[in-house]
Amino acid sequence: MYRPQIKVTDCSIRDGGLMNKHMFSYEFVRKVYEALSKAGVDYIELGYKNSKEMFSTEEYGPWKFCDDDDISRVIDGIESKSKIAVMADVGRVNMTDIRLASESPVHMIRTAVYVKEIDKAINMANEFHDKGYETTINVMAISRDQGPELDEALDQMEKECNCDAIYVVDSFGALYQENIQHLMKRFKNYIKTKDLGFHGHNNQQLAFSNTIEAIIQNANRLDGTVFGIGRAAGNCHLELLLGFLKNPKYNILPVLDLIAEEFIPLRETLEWGYTIPYAITGMKNEHPRSAMALRASENKDNYSEFYENLLSSKMD
Predict the structure, then answer these.
(1) For residues 3 and 215, is the Cβ–Cβ distance under 8 A?
(2) In tens digits, what is the pLDDT along the chain, a chain of 316 residues?
(3) Nearest residue to 17 via CA among 54, 51, 73, 59
(4) Domains in the chain and their CATH numbers?
């Protein structure tokens, strides 16, 4: 589907970093940045902008914090029209650490938030906007927050926030295409002056098809990751998304080379992508942390017991 106003954000380093505590090497991140630049991806999200007062630099790698100097180190000398993005979680960023956009290699800051904290997200996004950044608000765990408070949040974001886009985020990979259709229409009832976006997780192998449904519903901001890398079951595969969009500004070949040269070997030491435990948490609309714990244990393939334990915990 060719629609020139669509913009693609690659989240490979940011979302993939949730599987290795953001310990990607500078060399690896540089190779990803260079390949995605050649591919013509609109935004490359390199990690989180978290406070070092809240998280240890010994426990987490540099992409948990995305210092401007670290970003400059990996992008220096690479010709690119792609813009750098980072994510800021509500309550985890020291706003005084954020320089003016004119002094930073970062172009866009995406604020991640649950519906109940939308006031804080609006304040953060507006401050980022005032410092010169492009901004988005990513509404997480939308499969759990669809009551009247969502409508109130959408109305508030439209009226009070200066962000460029608002994302539907299927954090648990629990949604189906009809859910995406309903949510996009619901968002459009309120959001008139900003782009709508979609970020899907692949717990039930629906991230790509749900992204297509979001496009059909006029979402113009789309997220993907190289070879689907991301937390737990991962995300919409970037290579599939670029192939679907049929936009001549995107070149899939550098992504295919990157997969062959870097991501296939990475899979030997780092697990991500569809597995049965992640599918189960998606079916049950649960955070995948319990499935991630199972995959790290000696009983990682004990699926039926995991399913029964998850059911009993929901009944308690």
Answers:
(1) yes
(2) 678 899 999 999 999 999 999 999 999 999 999 999 999 999 999 999 999 999 999 999 999 999 999 999 999 999 999 999 999 999 999 999 999 999 999 999 999 999 999 999 999 999 999 999 999 999 999 999 888 999 999 999 999 999 999 999 999 999 999 999 999 999 999 999 999 999 999 999 999 999 999 999 999 999 999 999 999 999 999 999 999 999 999 999 999 999 999 999 999 999 999 999 999 999 999 999 999 999 999 999 999 999 999 988 876 5
(3) 59
(4) 7-266 (3.20.20.70), 276-315 (no CATH)
Question: How many residues comprise the chain?
Answer: 316
CB 135 within 8 A of CB 110: yes
